[in-house]
Structure formats: C-alpha cells, structure tokens
Design brief:
Structural class: mainly alpha
Number of strands: 4
Strand order of the largest sheet: 1-2-4-3
Shape: elongated
Radius of gyration: 22 Å
Strand content: 5-15%
Oligomer: single chain
Helix content: 55-70%
Order of helices and strands: HHHEHEEEHHHHHH
Number of helices: 10
Largest sheet: 4 strands, mixed
C-alpha cells in the first residue's frame, strides 16, 4: 500500500495550528485556575497573586529572551566558528540563507564527538547557529545541509519567541500555584462551605496544573520540531539529506561528552533526554514523516 504524500507547506501549517491549539489549552488552565482562586479568596487577594506572578514571570523571561543567543552559546561553551577553518559550514549556511531569504546568522562550534546542533536568538536578525565538531566530521555535505536547514527553520518560524511566550504562561501558572499553596498556611479556617469547596479544588489544581501545562509545553516543543523539519525540506527541496542525518543520530552510541542543561535541551537538534518528558518527537516518527514529503 502506497503511503500518502505530505506537502511540506501543509505540514508547516498543520503544526502551527496544533501549536496554537496547545497554547489555548495552557491559557484555559490559567483562566480556570484563576477563576477558582477568586472564589476561594477575597477578590483583592486574588488580584495581588496574579499581579505578582505576572511581574516575576515576565521579568525573568524578558531578560532571558533578549539574551537567548548569548545564554545558549555560553552555557555549552561554544566558540565562534572561523571562516577559514570551517569553509563548508559557512558555505552551506550562506546558501540556505539565500534560498530562505534570511539574514546570515552568527556561526558557532561546540567541541564534542556527538552529532548535534542548535539555533537560538529572538529573531532572524539576532540568530546564532551552533554545530558540534562531531556533526562536521561525521555528516556528509547533504546531511549537514539538512541539519543546518532544520536549525534555520527554527529561526524562520520564530520558535524562540514562540517558546518564550509559552514559558511565560507556564511560569505564571507555576508561580500562582506556589503562592496559593503557601498562602493557605496563613489563612484561618472558613465557615463558608462554598469557599471551603473552592479551596479544596484550588489545592488540587495547584498540584496538577503545573504538571499538565508542562506536558503541554513539551508537546508544543515537539510540534515545532516537525515544523522545523518541514521548513528544512522547503529550503533544500531534498528531504533525504535530513533523513540520512537522523538515521546516523539514531545509530550513534557514543557516550555524551558534555552535560546539557534541561533548560536548553529543547534547542538542540537531537534531544539528549529520552522518554515521556522529551522535547523532541521520536526519531523514527520524524524519519517516517520526512519520507512522505
């Protein structure tokens, strides 16, 4: 039975729609949680909780967002790539930026034998792309081009900006949950049975909401990976390069030489963490989808 072909344009559009739907779920959790707290406490106290959570979350993320490229590069000890030493690296990225109409990002190198790469930056004008020495040594030209196109797909799709917005929303829910739970220690008993019910519901939501929205956040990250794969096909018109690179990564058994923080794991081409909490979809699923394009 012949597999149904996938148009990369449809794949990009579908994953963007799914991402917006998942974001709506996070927003809905935030609204429901706030609604319950407003009944459990006095309205004035509810607004104080919301204002504090928004200020703290936005302040932290604002600093991270405007320095995302510097933070990502520094956290893995990456070095600026020399044009003289890494001619093919520069040549491939320059060709892809011409094909995609994007400005040239800053290029970095991360010293490790594993095949990996990441892109960061708040917009195409402030983007960085980093590849490992293992990727440059082990990947053929078309395979490396596919990996680099995938990273530029993240930049073109404004994924850092997108995931920053999601992180703000998730952060606000986590902060509200902590403030709500801690405030119960300073609250006396209530004779109002309705309020008591809302407090119990609020406690349940305060425990479950951060877990639920974090799982949704990971699902959004996986959607963005599929969109970046489709963008790579759009830029190169050659899915086989990326497919072969993914197969090499799947078969790679080298032990990790560098510890990668979970905070920046979503940026990487190949996720260093496996399982339910993965920021990336399974490699086999990505390959199967690319083979249908």
């Amino acid at each position: 039975m012949e597999r149904v072909r996938i148009d990369f344009r449809d794949q990009i559009a579908r994953n963007k729609r799914n991402s917006f739907f998942l974001m709506a779920i996070i927003f809905a959790v935030f609204v429901v949680f706030g609604y319950v707290i407003s009944f459990a406490f006095e309205p004035g106290f509810f607004f104080v909780i919301m204002i504090i959570s928004i200020i703290v979350s936005l302040s932290y993320i604002w600093i991270s967002f405007y320095n995302s490229d510097k933070i990502a590069v520094a956290s893995v000890g990456a070095k600026k790539a020399s044009r003289e030493r890494f001619k093919q690296y520069y040549s491939l990225v320059e060709g892809l930026t011409i094909a995609s109409g994007m400005p040239m990002p800053k290029l970095y190198i991360m010293e490790t034998a594993q095949i990996n790469a990441f892109a960061s930056g708040r917009d195409p004008e402030n983007a960085v792309v980093c590849v490992t020495t293992g990727a440059l040594e082990k990947l053929e030209k078309r395979e490396l081009e596919g990996v680099l196109a995938h990273e530029l797909g993240h930049v073109a799709n404004y994924d850092i900006r997108y995931m920053t917005l999601v992180t703000v929303m998730v952060g606000m829910i986590a902060i509200v949950s902590q403030i709500f739970l801690r405030s119960l220690w300073f609250r006396g008993g209530s004779d109002d049975r309705n309020k008591a019910v809302f407090i119990v519901v609020g406690i349940v939501l305060a425990i479950l909401a951060p877990i639920v929205v974090q799982l949704v956040q990971l699902a959004i990250s996986r959607r963005r990976e599929f969109a970046a794969d489709a963008s790579a096909v759009k830029f190169t018109r050659y899915p086989d390069g990326l497919i072969r690179a993914l197969k090499k990564i799947k078969g790679e058994h080298a032990p990790p030489e560098k510890k990668i923080s979970k905070a920046i794991a979503p940026l990487f081409f190949a996720n260093p963490f496996k399982g339910l909490g993965s920021t990336h979809p399974p490699v086999d699923k990505r390959i199967e989808t690319l083979e249908r394009m």
